Amino acid sequence: xxxxxxxxxxxxxxxxxxxxxxxxxxxxxxxxxxxxxxxxxxxxxxxxxxxxxxxxxxxxxxxxxxxxxxxxxxxxxxxxxxxxxxxxxxxxxxxxxxxxxxxxxxxxxxxxxxxxxxxxxxxxxxxxxxxxxxxxxxxxxxxxxxxxxxxxxxxxxxxxxxxxxxxxxxxxxxxxxxxxxxxxxxxxxxxxxxxxxxxxxxxxxxxxxxxxxxxxxxxxxxxxxxxxxxxxxxxxxxxxxxxxxxxxxxxxxxxxxxxxxxxxxxxxxxxxxxxxxxxxxx
Length: 282
Hints:
Radius of gyration: 19 Å
Domain Methyltransferase type: 68-161
Shape: globular
CATH superfamily of the domain at 21-167 and 187-214 and 269-277: Vaccinia Virus protein VP39
Pfam families: Methyltransf_11
CATH topology of the domain at 21-167 and 187-214 and 269-277: Rossmann fold
Strand content: 15-25%
Low-confidence stretches: 1-24, 237-243
Number of helices: 10
Pathway: Cofactor biosynthesis; biotin biosynthesis
Keywords: Biotin biosynthesis, Methyltransferase, S-adenosyl-L-methionine, Transferase
Order of helices and strands: HHHEHEHEEHEHHEHHE
Function: Converts the free carboxyl group of a malonyl-thioester to its methyl ester by transfer of a methyl group from S-adenosyl-L-methionine (SAM). It allows to synthesize pimeloyl-ACP via the fatty acid synthetic pathway.
CATH architecture of the domain at 21-167 and 187-214 and 269-277: 3-Layer(aba) Sandwich
């Protein structure tokens, strides 16, 4: 059970089917994958911590009475927001029940809510700050996320998000392409899609930029193990089924070696950082 009945800002919403876009993972699979990864997530979440910390530095000066951590996961940044805004009420919202169960005992937010970013169970004009780090890339209909942000933000409220775009895990993608030509890496939106959708959202775009974040690994298995522990392994529609054979893994390892650098095998993440604001008069 969620905390819906105990949070004054919440309202009941009907369950709606996901958008018919099939180039991004199905949200039910996303929820199941991240729920399963809740216990192992923080032990391998270096990228998530780095990106969320960077997003925190981009927040404008504000004193929210209520903030929302959208896609709150294990609650790392719910706790950071609670420390930054100690007088504020906080709502941690995630589509993965397993993440909420893990995060709730650790504290940080006032309310823990199971919900969908495309259909937020929140009242109109009920939030001063929406913070979302590495979550909205899993939403098939990002225009709906932006529409919901505009609806639930108070006039002058801020939506700060970090997401991933095309070019993420390009080394892994290209290595698999050399092995079998199949889709083994999650697909992400183009940078231009984020720019267009944000510009058309009715929110004011204060900043939007893409920065690469590169991690290094001693070998391919270390990378793929981390992706699985994060719940971020391949959940694309049309992904190859069945087990990956030893010969194909060996071929992948050989293909990836051409990217090796002095620090190890690189894995590049193209991170979108954006800060949007709702007009004072909507």
